[in-house]
Give the backbone structure.
Amino acid sequence: MNPLVAEFIGTAVVLLLGTGVVANVILPGTKGNGAGLIAITTAWAFAVFCGVVIAGPSSGAHLNPAVTIGLAAVGKFDWALAPGYILVQFGGAMLGSGLAWAMYRHHFDLTDDPGLKKGVFCTDPTVRNFSTSVLSEALGTFVLVFVILYIAGANLEDTGKTPIGLGSIGALPVTFLVWGIGLALGGTTGYAINPARDLGPRIMHQLLPIKGKGDSDWGYAWVPVVGPILGAFLAAGLFLVVGN
């Protein structure tokens, strides 16, 4: 598969399952309504597993601009390829969240709470403090990227020597990594730890014809973009200092 196509499809699957579980848990009338944080973090982790299995052999399964940036910053990925990867990651995130909305669209109509409708698409802090939220996103992404740098350094690439090569084998440790971050560090902002994961669906929330959806909170939208990028650079910096 073409690496850009792989990144697009892989990210779309991650967001379809990830935003899908949020819809299942928080929207009224669903089979999973009220299932809680464990269900959400588990499904997001498994969503990443699916995306990595799909995209790993072809693109290295970044599925996240912060991962792409972190890998490029330590020389494990070509900076020249990064813009294309990031663009299709955003496109895939938009498609995946749009498909989740299409599936649960009737359940959106069962609530008048715009916060629940927006919550399916994008993150929102429990305490409205920008510095704390940036720290939360940066720290969560730091853990994500720093560990992935060591996974990527473990020579897990396939026989075709893909650019990063997390592949199907790498899907399991990355799954556990995302799961642990969600459970431990996801309580403040909802752990976007991925600019495409938040901004792509937020754009879809703005564009889709969702009745009574309210605003898309663009005043907060920069936090889950800047925080993860900052965390990626911090992880890359420490990795270059301590080595592997």
